[in-house]
Amino acid sequence: MPRYSTAAIQQIVLDTPIVPVFFHADVAYAQRILQACYEGGLRVFEFTNRGANAFEVFSALMPFVQKNCPGMLLGIGTIYTAEDAERFIQAGADFVVQPCLTTEVAEVCRNHGTPWLPGTMTVGEVYQATKLGAAIVKIFPGNVVGPGFIKSLRGPMPTVPLMVTGGVEPTEESLREWFAAGVNVVGMGSQLFKNVDDTQAFSQQIAQLLEFVGTLKK
Ligand SMILES: O=C(O)C(=O)C[C@H](O)[C@H](O)COP(=O)(O)O
């Protein structure tokens, strides 16, 4: 049984519309970063399936989130296969993110009632994602398609929930541009985690970004 319904997850993601995209092979380090994100006000965390021990680290993060970060969603990213989708869902993943769109992952997510966020970069793929039941459609890589793509897409597809990831920068200028173009959520990895040694300063940076995004949505 998923911890949250798709509707609940959509609401949480849209309420705190910055999704940190993170991988680290060390559990204690990953927990420290996750906690810092939570303290900055984030309520969604995407851990990526990018290393040999990603499954072990993810499995250790889930009880940590349940104990220390109430209300925080923990999802898994970089999923390509049905097998991986299945095992991470069994380990408690609240949602599944893909760099691309594969129908077998859509099917596993549908069978479990787990929200599915496929990666797309054409209008046809966005349409296919909505037809296959995507909770939120990810546009990836954002820095390649650019905000102009989102703006144009909003003509024929005004209401599809869209998350952009890939090269998104944690600056007011960049966030203003993406949200003005019409995204509902931004995902950030490498740019967001450039400087995290001082976790307190990192939490503060996140809080400021969230506050800024809140002003954009008004
Ligand atoms: O693999 C996935 O499922 C993903 O979600 C891809 C990530 O969104 C990007 O790799 C983040 O890109 P950067 O912000 O440029 O580091």
UniProtKB/TrEMBL annotation:
Name of the protein in question: Bifunctional 4-hydroxy-2-oxoglutarate aldolase/2-dehydro-3-deoxy-phosphogluconate aldolase
Subunit: Homotrimer.
Gene3D superfamilies assigned: Aldolase class I (3.20.20.70)
Alphabetic keyword roster: Carbohydrate metabolism, Lyase
Record-linked Pfam families: Aldolase (PF01081)
A single GO molecular function term of this UniProt record: lyase activity
Metabolic or biological pathway: Carbohydrate acid metabolism
Family: Belongs to the KHG/KDPG aldolase family.
Superkingdom, natural source: Bacteria
